[in-house]
Amino acid sequence: MRLARISTPDGIRTVRAEGDGTWIPVHDPFAAFAAGREVQDAGGPVSGTLLAPCEPTLVVGIAQNGPGHVSPVQAWLKSPRTVVGPDATVTLRRDAGTTVAEAEVAVVIGRETTGLTAGNAHEYVLGITAVNDLSSPDRAAVDPRNFESKSGRGYTPLGPWIDTAIGLDDDVPLRLIVDGEPVAETSAGRYPVALRDCLAYVAGWTTLGPGDVIMMGAPFSASPIQPGAELDVVVGEIGLRTSTV
């Protein structure tokens, strides 16, 4: 199932995709997931503007999930206020050095994570979406905690939908396209540390809840960009487009 949020004349609705371009309102998918029941429809087709597919309280980034790192993976926090939806236009900072686009798999938590382990992590995950972890890596020289490098307004494009059919062990394609040209082509299976192991690490230190997002890192899917670049992050069949100025 593809789950999204759209802004309609009657307010924001959570919806599921049906066919090509039809959105059907649904009742709270996180409540349904926690209760172990199917998502239920809540009306007829609606139309509107796609938003980020969830409203996370926590956005967690996974660091050091790349080849050759002597340290194990670690996590850092990115402000949920940086989250924007598909087709957003993001103003890149001119005072923070080079900007890098990072195509990443984003895991959306479905229920409170007490008891999550690597073996049962799939029982806590609603689905997968795409994220572009825009970054200013030059700031790391003076800001090793990633606050400055990750805090630009709109620096977390997310969406456009959550795909509940993608599993944590699926080797889905992961691509970054800049101005129509592929600059990185890899897959989730090339993460040196598996998604479920990363989730277990994070949940071992803090409690995650419905709608929280874990960005799994971009060891093979990052590229410097310039203002004006048109960016596409592709995770499986999920395509996230972002414009920059």
Span of the ends, CA to CA: 34 Å
Question: Mean of the pLDDT scores?
Answer: 95
How is the biggest beta sheet arranged? Answer: 12 strands, mixed
- Evaluate the radius of gyration: 17 Å
Outline type:
globular
CATH classification class of the largest domain? Alpha Beta
Number of strands: 17
Q: Helix segment count? A: 3
CATH superfamily of the largest domain: Fumarylacetoacetase-like, C-terminal domain
CATH architecture of the largest domain, please? Alpha-Beta Complex
Q: Give the strand content.
A: 35-45%
Question: Would you tell me the structural class of the helices and strands?
Answer: mainly beta
Tell me the helix content.
Answer: under 10%
CATH topology title of the largest domain: Fumarylacetoacetate hydrolase, domain 2
Instruction: Outline the low-pLDDT stretches.
Output: none
Number of domains: 2
From N to C, what is the helix and strand string? EEEHEEEEEEEHEEEHEEEE
Brief account:
The chain contains 3 helices and 17 strands. The model has no long low-confidence stretch (mean pLDDT 95). With 245 residues, the chain is mostly beta strands.
Structure description:
Strands 1, 2, 3, 4, 5, 6, 7, 9, 10, 11, 14 and 15 form a twelve-stranded mixed sheet that branches. The chain has a five-stranded mixed sheet with strand order 8-17-16-12-13, with no helix packed on it. Helix content is 8%, strand content 39%. The radius of gyration is 17 Å and the shape is globular. A hairpin with a 2-residue loop joins strand 1 (2-8) and strand 2 (11-18). It is mostly beta strands and 245 residues long. 43% of the residues are buried. It has two domains: 1-51, SH3 type barrels, CATH 2.30.30; 53-244, Fumarylacetoacetate hydrolase, domain 2 (Alpha-Beta Complex).
